[in-house]
Amino acid sequence: MVDDPDVDDLPEVPSELAREHPSVWEQYNELGAACADAGPIDGETRRLVKLALAIGAESEGAVHSHVRRGLEEGVDPEALEHVALLSIPTLGFPQAMAARSWIGDETE
């Protein structure tokens, strides 16, 4: 069983996974840390890239997560919102507007 206050702050489904399969959750987090440390990209840029990937994957939950974490890390809310605008020519207007809405869920 995972006894971690950060797990308590997760949405229900990943929180359940962390509690039911703590070794999987630990390895998942270690993989994320290893990927983050594998290159020269600074923390704020990494967060914006991960937000863009979440938008491209059409993952509302991941967008919410990356926006929340970005705000906690001090990323300017306007920078987070700019990612949605940048997605217009690549992903299309409807997907960009969905992303803008998901970002707004956390920034408003």
From TrEMBL:
One of its GO terms (molecular function) is peroxiredoxin activity. SUPFAM superfamilies: AhpD-like. It holds the Pfam family CMD. Residues 26-102 form the Carboxymuconolactone decarboxylase-like domain. This is Carboxymuconolactone decarboxylase family protein. It comes from the Archaea. InterPro entries: AhpD-like, CMD-like.
